[in-house]
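Consider the tokenized backbone below.
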């Protein structure tokens, strides 16, 4: 019933009938106190009606209820909406601090549970009449007594520590400022969140809803994955400067937080640790994705793949930066996480021959490591690129532990040596007699 009332409220919102929408959303919450989406919409109505203080109070109650249930991203979204009305509101920032503390990895022991709202806001579920029959100040006054009341049900286990990717790794003050800077968007089913080949200047946090990830393959959109609430994407494009490689489309109504590159630059001036936190977060996500999908790790039992990450070192390369030099000793296997590496070899006749381009999931350096040779080619970044490296000692341990990886690399190195040979083979010289043109 609460859901159908919410839909009716949206109809009134579409008509800009804010008072009627407020009545419907408030009634939905009266009947089902954990309907925090209706609470957020009711706060929007209060804002449109010019009652800013009540809008902030409702959003605060919403954030507290969501945090109590460990819906931390949704609680952050409610706080972000409140900050648009009251940027330095103390109670909102205190709630954000508790959310951060709840999930911060460095905090040990039992996490504190957000306290309930003051007793004067408590609501016993009894009203003299249906809120949808009220209007004016009577509606506003009775609605706030419902909307500001806490959602006390469904309390999360205080001993558990819920994940809050990226945000929990920031220091508290940086987290508070980022929350104030980022944008909150509501999207309808079918709306595109980000499009393949366009943009790449922001990170997206899917707070609620579901989205589909697609990529154009041979002229048709191919589904790659489905995302749910809590998914974070776009950070790889933001770090490497490359446009998104896929399109993400809402398949239900979605709430999305967006963090723009400019906002991160502003934040980094005050908090220099922010870029490194973001880079570490993105590299670890990229590495986990590749360990799960790269053929290099195919011979490794799935349960053991995650443990391999601790053996790698992560690096970022600037455009033009060399990671392997032709003729030089190779100290590590290189795995491309994101971006692009160009493989080139000096031509004995002069100049340089481009052999290949390495992208996400590709590796370099295996020929020298396997065969005890110096580098057969130079490998350098063509644009901002993220890589993971495995030093020689760790590499030898890996192929000894998983012979299937050595078999894969042996086959790859043989194919590459053959490719190098063909690329460097001189063009056939025609017989001199064939150059003679008979006269008339």
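A designed sequence for it:
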């Amino acid at each position: 019933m609460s859901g159908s009332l919410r839909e009716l409220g949206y109809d009134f919102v579409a008509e800009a009938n804010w008072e009627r929408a407020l009545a419907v959303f408030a009634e939905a919450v009266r009947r089902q106190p954990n309907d925090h989406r209706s609470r957020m919409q009711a706060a929007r109505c209060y804002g449109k009606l010019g009652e800013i203080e009540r809008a902030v109070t409702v959003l605060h109650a919403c954030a507290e209820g969501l945090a109590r249930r460990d819906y931390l991203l949704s609680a952050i979204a409610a706080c972000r909406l409140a900050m648009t009305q009251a940027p330095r509101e103390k109670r909102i920032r205190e709630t954000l601090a508790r959310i951060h503390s709840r999930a911060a990895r460095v905090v040990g022991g039992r996490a504190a549970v957000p306290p309930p709202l003051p007793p004067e806001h408590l609501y016993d579920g009894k009203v003299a009449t249906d809120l949808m029959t009220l209007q004016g100040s009577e509606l506003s006054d009775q609605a706030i007594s419902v909307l500001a009341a806490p959602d006390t049900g469904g309390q999360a286990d205080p001993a558990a520590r819920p994940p809050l990717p990226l945000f929990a790794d920031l220091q508290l003050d940086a987290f508070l400022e980022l929350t104030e800077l980022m944008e909150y968007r509501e999207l309808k089913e079918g709306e595109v969140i980000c499009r393949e080949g366009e943009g790449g200047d922001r990170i997206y946090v899917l707070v609620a809803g579901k989205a589909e990830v697609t990529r154009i393959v041979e002229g048709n959109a191919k589904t790659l994955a489905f995302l749910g609430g809590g998914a974070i994407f776009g950070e790889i494009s933001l770090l490497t400067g490359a446009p998104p490689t896929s399109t993400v489309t809402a398949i239900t109504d979605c709430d999305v937080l967006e963090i723009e590159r400019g906002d991160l630059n502003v934040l980094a001036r005050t908090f220099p640790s922010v870029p490194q936190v973001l880079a570490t977060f993105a590299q670890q996500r990229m590495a986990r994705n590749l360990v799960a999908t790269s053929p290099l790790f195919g011979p490794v039992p799935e349960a053991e793949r995650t443990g391999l990450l601790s053996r790698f070192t992560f690096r970022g390369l600037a455009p033009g930066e060399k990671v392997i030099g032709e003729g030089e000793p190779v100290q590590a296997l290189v795995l491309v996480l994101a971006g692009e590496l160009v493989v080139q070899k000096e031509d004995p006749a002069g100049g340089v021959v481009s052999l290949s381009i390495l992208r996400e999931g590709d590796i370099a350096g295996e020929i020298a490591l396997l065969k005890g040779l110096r580098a057969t080619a130079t490998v350098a970044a063509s644009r901002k690129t993220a890589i993971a490296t495995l030093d020689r000692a760790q590499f030898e341990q890996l192929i000894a532990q998983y012979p299937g990886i050595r078999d894969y690399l042996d086959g790859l190195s043989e194919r590459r040596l053959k490719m190098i040979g063909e690329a460097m083979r001189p063009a056939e010289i025609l017989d001199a007699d064939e150059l003679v043109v008979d006269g008339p």
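Residues 106-125, 429-440 have pLDDT under 50 and may be disordered.
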